[in-house]
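INFO  loader      accepted 1 record
INFO  loader      residues=138
INFO  predictor   begin
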Amino acid sequence: MRKINEIIIHCSATPEGRDVSVDMIRSWHKERGFKDIGYHYVIDIAGNVHKGRSEDVIGAHCTGHNQNSIGICYIGGMSKDMTESKDTRTAAQKATLVKLIRELMTRYPGVSIHGHNEYAVKDCPSFNVKQWKEDVGL
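INFO  predictor   done
INFO  writer      dumping tokens
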């Protein structure tokens, strides 16, 4: 079993309101040369959690941080017209993200939580994870 010390939150960088399947993201990632989808979990617009890679398998979601992290992606993160990044999380996605992270924190005590933008020059996940953690009590 891998030693997990980080959870890194991502968005799919897709337009607000457009649902995207795990299989679609998997195909995008394979086109980029990945062996599989890079994330361990994907949260769809309705708030359902879909498994990507097994937690036992190193992800491909954050350069320099894949070895000991879990990658979670929510569907969305861009305005409808794709001109700007936007926190498009639905109420269901927000609730599911908190629940999933709390479950992971129980399995991996001491794990830290980060947005992809803390490690890359990107807007992903299109919201301030540090502020969000305070707001939801994580």
